[in-house]
Amino acid sequence: MRIAHNHLWVALLAVAISAAGARAQQSQDQAGQDQGQSQNQGAQQNQDQAQQPIPAYRSPLGGASENEEENQTPDSYVPDTTPLAGASDILIGVPRESRSYWQPSLSFVGTGESNPGTSSSGGWTGYGTVLGGINLHLIRGISDLTLSYLGGGSFSNDSSIGSSVVQTLGARLRFTSHRNTLTFSDSFSYLPEAGFGYGAAIGTLPGVTTGTGVTGLTTGFAPGTSILTTSGQQISNSSVAQFARRVTHRGTLTLLGGYSFLHYVNNGLLNYADISAQGGYDYQISPQNTIAVIYRFDQDRYSFTPGVPTINNHTVQLSYGRRVTGRIAFHAAGGAEFSYYPASILGLTGTSTSTTQYINWSANAGLTYRLERGSLAINYSHWVSPGSGVFYGALTDQVSASATRQLSRLATLNLNAGFARNKALDIVGAPGANQIYDYTYAGANFMKPLSQTLRLNISYQFQYQTSNLGFCIGVACGSSYTTHIISAGLNWIARPMRIE
Question: Phi and psi (nearest 5°) for 397?
Fold first, then answer.
């Protein structure tokens, strides 16, 4: 866990350097005219809200099932200023209420799973999961820190499965001045299986599904783990430092650098690290529409073993984004990706031969749409990925979607689904050459509050993976793998507690 400790610097730095912030001034006293009366009513509402509990900040601990967003109107948001050329997805807006607080949570979940890969008995296996977490939002002057931690473990009645550990940490520290924004983001996870789709069946970990938590990092900046493999602990981390400067009234220049890695613990898969740099320019053509040009460089390194290939990617994209505050956020980017990697590997410890140049199209798109009684989100990406620890590089298509519907005042239904295709790069002598994995998950989560802080979750998830060649997940081997996961649990999420 030394790696986890090394990436807590973001949170610790924020607490150390934060200075006392200024309180917002109260609204003007009542005037005799209609405009003055309207202003006074708004001030009175603000005073009433100050006496109420702090609205919960949207975080991966509760996700869509918390039903926070459905209780807010479009007027509850202020415009989002996330640059298109940055490392994070654009948003429908930022909650208007901005106060410092902390918020603990605790979950108990019972799960039944069919055909788990590590089970020697087959059939259904049951296990329990205990999770605890904390959200922190700290505002001091020009700095804004958001931190979310979740930790716990699962315990099975099948001795061949044993126990597993879950640890996730997301942190984002932002400094904002008149023209400049400096952002540090870090997303860490220690999970027992692939992060793509993980946690959706439990109903308490929707933030882990993307692997980005509160940072909102796009797919290319997070380690890709979209292939189901033999169960075993895996460590992943993504760190990004980003600087954005508004150079004109409509133009913003963004520069950033990132480092991410994926490390498997004792299961023989490929460890890798990715170094990235990106620059771009946003131009706001109207209050709701923005275009951008982006250049990005990535270098993927595998296990630092002699003869193992290094993959260099150069990507140029044009991007378009549309934001209607409190209602819709849409972005789409496309362009060319130039990849350079060895044509062959002479054994795992041999030397690589000549370099292959592969020209590929690159694209990513995302939509978040808020409905009157729910919300919809969908994301798609196509790029040369590091290969999820199975391949030395892969051509990857990945799509995920979720929909939330408030069934009644006290009940919410969340649907989620995802698909990933990974095709190995054509490197002679590399493991998995000419192999393709298709992985699909789909599920539903029903949430009903039992009190102001206690919630009941019932979830189901289906996972299905196929390949044109044989593969093994634990004791199960073949060209396809299917599992069903059913769970029920109680989530206790405390009311946010203000930090003065």
Answer: -115, 130
Q: Is residue 160 part of a domain?
A: yes
Residue 213 to residue 230: CA distance in whole angstroms: 24
CATH of the domain at 150: 2.40.160
How distant, in Å, are the alpha carbons of 91, 137, 169 from that of 73? 15, 22, 29
Distance, first Cα to last Cα, the chain: 33
Residue ranges making up the domain that contains 333: 63-498
Kindly give the confidence (pLDDT) of every residue in the chain, 500 residues in length, as a single tens digit, with 9 standing for 90 and above.
333 344 433 333 343 333 333 333 333 444 344 444 444 444 444 444 333 344 433 333 333 333 444 456 667 888 999 999 999 999 999 887 678 999 999 999 998 888 776 555 567 888 899 999 999 999 999 999 999 999 999 888 777 677 889 898 999 999 999 899 999 999 998 988 776 766 654 544 433 333 345 667 888 887 778 888 876 788 999 999 999 999 999 999 999 999 999 998 877 788 899 999 999 999 999 999 999 999 999 999 887 555 566 899 999 999 999 999 999 999 999 999 999 988 877 654 444 456 888 899 999 999 999 998 999 999 999 999 999 888 888 999 999 999 999 998 889 999 999 999 999 998 887 777 789 999 999 999 999 999 999 999 999 999 999 999 988 877 678 899 999 999 999 999 999 999 98
Residue 454 lies in a domain: yes
Torsion of CA 73, 76, 81, 84, to 10 degrees: -20
**How many distinct structural domains can be found in the chain?**
1
- Structure tokens given for 436: 């393709």
471 located within any domain: yes
Q: How many CB atoms lie within 10 A of CB 315?
A: 22
Residue 94 lies in a domain: yes
